[in-house]
Specification:
The protein is an alpha/beta fold. It is built from eight helices and 14 strands.
């Protein structure tokens, strides 16, 4: 089978919405090639260093790539992608050059080649994320291993928004807590919560691709007795309350989540961890949190991305 590689050159700010557009177009996953990765320190605390090939990265900005099958509908699909990209400006998202290019690949070429983008990475005080196809043992035995098979939902490593959420979970999750993970993706935050001692985790995502990926990873990490994964749109039809709620989403979706009453699902003294917030949207999210009666306990930052941890006192 032949596949078309759809490559969109954009900005750091637009990574998440562009990724969403590609998923909606039928992509099973994305590759993220961020030019800033070349200038970052890629050593981890276990002494491993991973060299990145500059040929795989743009000279500036970000390439977001996805693979779609070559069929009679491809032309229409690409035009729908172009239109959706142009509409990003309506939502005050800067897409940069917003340049779309297409190239063809045989299935054998990309079935394994994408794995070079995914390496072991240490996160916070307690975890190391390791792709399932790498035989690797961390030198620090105190670090808990999270095995992930992204199922073509991958990037150049753990995204800063996910790292921020995992670090926030380390700081506020108590053993026996019940957790809601909104927009679970590969399920990594739910697995983190389970391995941190959560009693039960409900992981939800609108994408059926993400739901399948999360269920696979939950099984791989043997936390299926703790984590329940189901397809769901944000907090629709959820009636339970939780000690901790995580939402690694775009700022616009975080705001919508708060305004739709996510605070009702937090127990007294419960924590809401929100990430996926570009720096320019931080103050807007803070105001919405305040209006909902939550107060921000902590703000953390990686690059242009912000995560906020807020608490409910009532």
């Amino acid at each position: 089978m032949k596949w078309s590689e759809i490559c969109i050159h954009t900005t750091e700010e637009a990574i998440e919405p562009v990724t969403g557009i590609l998923y909606q177009a039928g992509a099973g996953g994305v590759v993220i090639e961020d030019s800033r990765d070349l200038s970052q320190d890629h050593s981890d605390t276990d002494g491993q260093v991973y060299d990145l090939d500059p040929e795989d990265y743009p000279t500036d900005g970000v390439n977001v790539k996805a693979y779609l099958p070559v069929n009679s509908f491809l032309g229409e699909t690409v035009e729908e992608i172009r239109q959706a990209l142009n509409n990003l400006l309506i939502y005050d998202i800067d897409p940069g050059e917003n340049r779309l290019s297409i190239s063809e690949h045989n299935e054998e070429e990309w079935a394994t080649a994408w794995k070079k983008y995914y390496k072991p990475v240490t996160v916070g005080r307690s975890f190391i994320i390791i792709p399932t196809w790498i035989d690797y043992q961390p030198e620090d035995p105190k670090r808990q291993v999270i095995e992930l098979d992204p199922g073509m939902a991958f990037g150049t490593g753990t995204h800063p928004t996910t790292v921020l959420c995992m670090e926030a979970l380390e700081n506020c999750l108590s053993p026996g807590a019940e957790v809601l993970d909104v927009g679970t993706g590969t399920g990594v935050l739910s697995i983190t919560a389970a391995k941190s001692g959560a009693k039960h985790v409900l992981a939800v995502d609108l994408s059926d691709t993400a739901v399948r990926s999360a269920r696979l990873n939950v099984r791989l990490n043997k936390v299926q007795k703790t984590v329940t994964v189901r397809q769901n749109n944000l907090i629709d039809h959820i009636t339970e309350t939780f000690d901790v709620i995580t939402a690694n989403l775009l700022a616009e979706l975080v705001i919508r989540l708060i305004r739709e009453g996510v605070v009702r699902h937090l127990r007294r003294k419960g924590y809401l961890i929100v990430s996926g917030i570009i720096n320019t949207k931080k103050d807007q999210v803070r105001r919405v949190l305040h209006d909902a009666g939550l107060h921000v306990l902590n703000e953390s930052e990686k690059g242009d991305w912000i995560a906020l941890t807020a608490q409910k006192d009532f």
